[in-house]
Design a protein that fits this description.
Keywords: Membrane, Transmembrane, Transmembrane helix
Structural class: mainly alpha
Number of helices: 3
Low-confidence stretches: none
Strand content: under 5%
Pfam family, one: DUF983
Largest sheet: none
Helix content: 40-55%
Oligomer: single chain
Transmembrane segments: 51-71, 77-96
Radius of gyration: 18 Å
Number of strands: 0
Number of domains: 1
Distance between the termini: 32 Å
Order of helices and strands: HHH
Length: 118
């Protein structure tokens, strides 16, 4: 079996084992099984990790941009209202799916599992 790079496989939103099957069946809904290698993906859970990374990355990128626009260009308030919400929403949605794929691929690669007390 070929070892696949989990970051690249996750960014491509592909199955973490075979790299061929699609990981999602909707915007953020993970498939139950890989359509190519039949890997059980029901236990794949990225939790809130991708959302945290999206918030941190977007904040680091957009906050300086907002300040630059405000203090450099001094636009009227309505420009901010029209400009930033669609930009933030679109960027968050675009980033969330690949980051969720990366988290799932890294969990598979490192064989992460829930702690179980027996």
């Amino acid at each position: 079996m070929t070892v696949r790079a989990p970051i690249l496989t996750g960014l491509a939103c592909r199955c973490p084992r075979c790299g061929q099957g699609r990981l999602f069946r909707g915007l953020l809904t993970v498939r139950e099984r890989c359509e190519h290698c039949d890997l059980d993906l029901k236990a794949a859970d990225s939790g809130d990790g991708p959302a945290v990374f999206v918030i941190l990355l977007l904040g680091a990128i957009l906050a300086p941009l907002v300040f630059w626009v405000e203090f450099g260009l001094e636009p009227p308030f309505w420009v901010h209202v029209v400009l930033w919400p669609p930009l933030v929403l679109g960027a968050a949605i675009a980033m969330l799916r690949p980051l969720k794929g990366v988290m799932i691929a890294l969990q598979f690669h490192h064989q992460a599992a829930e702690h179980r007390v027996e």
